[in-house]
C-alpha cells in the first residue's frame, strides 16, 4: 500500500560521537549541567535535547524510539523494558479508578491476566469481546470506557482485527484505539488505518534474536510526554526503563527486520499450504481458508507477507507434545514459547502462554488442546524442513487421528 515502513527506518541517519556509523551508547544514568538553570528547565521539561536522568529518557532509548516511531508512522515513541511494561504503562496512563476498557478476548495471556485480575484492584474494569463482531464491540462501550484495545493479529488464534472499522467506532465515542502490533510489524501499519496508539513487544520479531525482552509505545508527542511526565507519567513513575546497552542492540537488529519478516512470511506461507494440503487443520492469514484472509490483504503493506505465525491442530495435547518433542529431537526447532527467532519455535498455547485464560473460556474461543503454535524460522531450505516435519507427523501418527 502507501506506507513504506522499512524505507522510513532505512532513511534515519545517526552517527556516533567519533563519526562511528552507529550512534554512541549512552552509558550513564545521570547527566551533568553547566548551569543550574538548565537543570531546572530540564526537570520542568523546558530544555529540548537535555538529559536529566535515564529513567526519564536517554539518548540510546530516544534513537530506538525514533526508529520505531518511523516504522509505525507516529510522531514519537517511548521504549520500555518489556512489552508488558509498555502495555501496562499505556493503559494505566489512559485509565483511572472507575474507568472501563473494551478489549478483544483473544489477546496475549499476560495482557489478559493484567486486565482480568490486576486492573480490577485499581477499579478498572474490562469487557472482553469478540473483536471480529463489530456490533458487540460497540455494544460493550459505556460512558466510562476510556480505551478500545486489540491485537492486529491475535495470539494465539491469529484472528485479524478490522482496524479501520474499529478506529471508526473509537472515533465515534471519542476514545483511543490501542493496537498491539507484535505479530505483524511492517506487514500492518495500524496508524495508517486509524489507530491512535501502537504497542509492540520488541522481544519478538523486531529484535529477533531472543536475547532480550523489550517493549514500545508509539503515539503522539503529547501522549508520550504524558507517559514520561515526572509528576504523573506511568512509565516515569512505575519505572519499566530499558537499559541503553539493550536499546542500542535492538536498534541494530531493527535494520534487518524487513529481510527477516519477508523470510519468516515466505517460509510460513510455504508450510501452511503444505500442511493444509496434507489435511491438517491449519490457521494462517495467508491461506484463502482463513476467515480474515481478505481483510488482512486489504490492510497489509505489500512485500512483507502474512507473517511468521501459524497454528495447526493435531487433535490432542498428547499428540501435540509427542510431535513437538520429536521435532525438537530432529533439530527442526525448539519447544519454547515466544516468537520471531531465526529458529522455528513451537508450543501448545492451551498449556503455556494462554494458560492464564480459564479452560471454559479457552473452549469458547476455539483454543483447543491439540493446537500447536508455530513461529516459523528463517530456514534457508524450507522444503527440507517440511519433509522432515512430515516424517515426524507420520511417526507420531497425526494423520491417523485427525480427520482428513
Ligand atoms: C510477548 C507478547 C507481549 C508481552 O511482551 P513481553 O516483552 O514479553 O513483556 C505482548 N503482546 C504480545 C502479542 C506478545 O506476543
List the helices and strands and how they pair.
Layout: H1 5-11, H2 36-43, H3 59-72, E1 76-80, H4 83-94, E2 100-104, H5 109-118, E3 125-129, H6 134-140, E4 145-151, H7 163-172, E5 177-180, E6 197-201, E7 215-219, H8 221-228, H9 234-238, H10 244-254, H11 257-277, E8 281-283, H12 293-299, E9 309-313, H13 317-329, E10 334-335, E11 345-347, H14 359-365, E12 371-375, H15 382-396, H16 398-401
Parallel strand pairs: 2-3, 2-4, 4-5, 5-6, 10-11
Antiparallel strand pairs: 1-7, 6-7, 8-9, 9-12, 11-12
Helix pairs in contact: 1-3, 3-10, 13-15
This protein binds pyridoxal-5'-phosphate.
Q: Can you walk me through this structure?
A:
The structure is a single chain. With 404 residues, the chain is α/β, with parallel strands linked by helices. It folds into 2 domains: 5-254, 3-Layer(aba) Sandwich (Aspartate Aminotransferase, domain 2), CATH 3.40.640.10; 257-401, Aspartate Aminotransferase, domain 1. 39% of the residues lie in helices and 13% in strands. The chain has 16 helices and 12 strands. The strands form 2 sheets. Strands 1-7-6-5-4-2-3 form a 7-stranded mixed β-sheet, with helices on both faces. Strands 8-9-12-11-10 form a 5-stranded mixed β-sheet, with helices on one face. Helix 3 runs parallel beside helix 10 and helix 13 (317-329) crosses helix 15. The longest helix has 21 residues, at 257-277. It is globular, with a radius of gyration of 22 Å. The two termini are 37 Å apart. The model has no long low-confidence stretch (mean pLDDT 94). Bound molecules: pyridoxal-5'-phosphate.
Amino acid at each position: 500500500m502507501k506506507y513504506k515502513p522499512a524505507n522510513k527506518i532505512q532513511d534515519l541517519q545517526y552517527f556516533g560521537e567519533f563519526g562511528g556509523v552507529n550512534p554512541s551508547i549512552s552509558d550513564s544514568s545521570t547527566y551533568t549541567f553547566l548551569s543550574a538553570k538548565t537543570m531546572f528547565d530540564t526537570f520542568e521539561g523546558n530544555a529540548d535535547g537535555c538529559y536529566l536522568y535515564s529513567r526519564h529518557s536517554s539518548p540510546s532509548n530516544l534513537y530506538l524510539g525514533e526508529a520505531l516511531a518511523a516504522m509505525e508512522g507516529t510522531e514519537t515513541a517511548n521504549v520500555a523494558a518489556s512489552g508488558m511494561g509498555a502495555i501496562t504503562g499505556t493503559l494505566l496512563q489512559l485509565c483511572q479508578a472507575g474507568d472501563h476498557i473494551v478489549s478483544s478476548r483473544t489477546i496475549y495471556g499476560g495482557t489478559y491476566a493484567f486486565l482480568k485480575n490486576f486492573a480490577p484492584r485499581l477499579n478498572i474494569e474490562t469487557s472482553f469481546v469478540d473483536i471480529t463482531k463489530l456490533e458487540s464491540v460497540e455494544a460493550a462501550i459505556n460512558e466510562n470506557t476510556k480505551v478500545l484495545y486489540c491485537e492486529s493479529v491475535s495470539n494465539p488464534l491469529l484472528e485479524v482485527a478490522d482496524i479501520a472499522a474499529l478506529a471508526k467506532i473509537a472515533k465515534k465515542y471519542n476514545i483511543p484505539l490501542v493496537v498491539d502490533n507484535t505479530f505483524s510489524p511492517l506487514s500492518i501499519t495500524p496508524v495508517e488505518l486509524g489507530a491512535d496508539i501502537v504497542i509492540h513487544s520488541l522481544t519478538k520479531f523486531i529484535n529477533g534474536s531472543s536475547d532480550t525482552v523489550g517493549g514500545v509505545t508509539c503515539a503522539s508527542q503529547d501522549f508520550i510526554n504524558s507517559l514520561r511526565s515526572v509528576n504523573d507519567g506511568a512509565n516515569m513513575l512505575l519505572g519499566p526503563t530499558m537499559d541503553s546497552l539493550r536499546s542500542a542492540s535492538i536498534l541494530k537488529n531493527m535494520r534487518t527486520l524487513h529481510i527477516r519478516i519477508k523470510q519468516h512470511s515466505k517460509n510460513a506461507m510455504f508450510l501452511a499450504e503444505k500442511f493444509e494440503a496434507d489435511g491438517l487443520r491449519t490457521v494462517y492469514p495467508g491461506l484463502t481458508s482463513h476467515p480474515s484472509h481478505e481483510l488482512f490483504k486489504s490492510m497489509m503493506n505489500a512485500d512483507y507477507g502474512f507473517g511468521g505465525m501459524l497454528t495447526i491442530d493435531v487433535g490432542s495435547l498428547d499428540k501435540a507434545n509427542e510431535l513437538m518433542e520429536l521435532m525438537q529431537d530432529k533439530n527442526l526447532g525448539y519447544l519454547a514459547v515466544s516468537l520471531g527467532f531465526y529458529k522455528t519455535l513451537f508450543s501448545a498455547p492451551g498449556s503455556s502462554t494462554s494458560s492464564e485464560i480459564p479452560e471454559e473460556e479457552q473452549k469458547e474461543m476455539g483454543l483447543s488442546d491439540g493446537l500447536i503454535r508455530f513461529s516459523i524460522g528463517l530456514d534457508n531450505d524450507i522444503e527440507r524442513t517440511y519433509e522432515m516435519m512430515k516424517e515426524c507427523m507420520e511417526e507420531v501418527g497425526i494423520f491417523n487421528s485427525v480427520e482428513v
